[in-house]
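Prompt: May I have another protein with tokenized structure?
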Amino acid sequence: MALAYRDLQHFIEALDKSGELRRIQAPVSANLEITEITDRVTKTGGPALLFENVEGSPYPVLINAFGTLKRMQLALEVDSLDDIAGRIRDLMTPPEVTGFWDKLKALPKLAELGNFVPKNVARGACQEVVEEDPDLTKLPVLTCWPQDGGPFITLPLVFTKDPATGHRNIGMYRLQVFDKKTTGMHWHLHKHGAEHYEHLTPEQRRLPVAVVLGSDPAVIYSATAPLPAGIDELMFAGFLRQAPVELVKCKTVDLEVPANAEFVLEGYVELGELRTEGPFGDHTGFYSLADQYPVFHVTCVTHRKNPVYPTTIVGKPLQEDYFLGKATERIFLPLLQMLVPEVTDYNMPAEGVFHNCVLVSIKKRYPGHARKVIHALWGLGLMMLTKLIVVVDHDVDVHDLSTTAWTVFNNTDWKRDTEITEGPVDALDHTAPLPHLGGKLGVDATRKWKSEGFQREWPDDITMSADMKEQVSRRWKEFGL
């Protein structure tokens, strides 16, 4: 593995060198125009874009940096995202401990984690310029879609600490810019940032917040990762980049942020202070409605001398966020298998926009096994928000959507093999009858057994004999096909 990216601009250099970046010098507007350009590029698998001349702002805009599988792998410095899953699986695999020497052999694996603990440094590039009288309107914040409530910061890393425990969290919650010094703070009910806000006491009143715009790719990705409670995103970022993240203390709030950041917005949210935020053209492909969210007050802005403003757009798939989600799907497979070991693979297709559909293959061992898996997944973290879970047998490639659809359509008796229930859903689900609560569907598309009440013989798949396949392969050139 190469040395970890120093910062976002080091990643930009790598994108440029690999032919994955297009620099655009023509003047462009952050109001709708960048979105329309980027949407066309994203949907055709085009390059990352660096807009160097954005009207009304001195800062260039980087967008679509993670917009293909190749760039996602480049961002995390791997040939395949499954390589990271392999490292996680190796860490989680308990050694065969039979004696003293086996225990000693296991120590280096545990000691490796100590290499990824973030470390504090005295100064960082993110504080080369300190603006004590901040003006957010200087930033090239995009207004993405015609009915959006205003300009939105869409790729922020939001740093908070639980006022009860002091535990740090980094989340990615959009910020609608209201004026020079305030934004909305769109954290959903199920997110840790919202939990920290709820833990404020009347005496505390204010929750310190730092919003980082731009860091090295591992830190950016880690803010999106559905880590279990208590797992530090920065330590996970260190694991991904195989080097610790360096932190500096903020100027006006009691928080530490990556020293390599492009911009840092320091400030606070106040208990009980809400403001209407939205609408916003969201990753579902529909506008999420305006609602009440906390107000983020910016008290200070720090940044590099020549910073780059990173952003993204969301909307009808395929968009850049799909590839961030695909990274999560591959990287977290070992953790899912640790909790539900019968899972052989899973796929979160783009059409499901994360929470609407999960396709799962399992090694079926007993009657009702598929239903057990469906309910187990609904009980895991943010998987609880999934509206549709489809389970197939282990020999079905869930990444081949045509084969998976054929399997589901042919293997399922809709009366017997489906289960409709009610539970938590994403706050963006516009179909739910109530906010955060709606219907969910589980589908058992595995082969049915007599022990499951199937009274007939389940037919065999049509497959050619191995001998004939080998014979035709040997003679293939003779046929001129």
Observations:
- The chain has a mean pLDDT of 93.
- The longest strand covers residues 263-277.
- The first helix runs from residue 8 to 17.
- The chain has two domains: 8-310, 340-452.
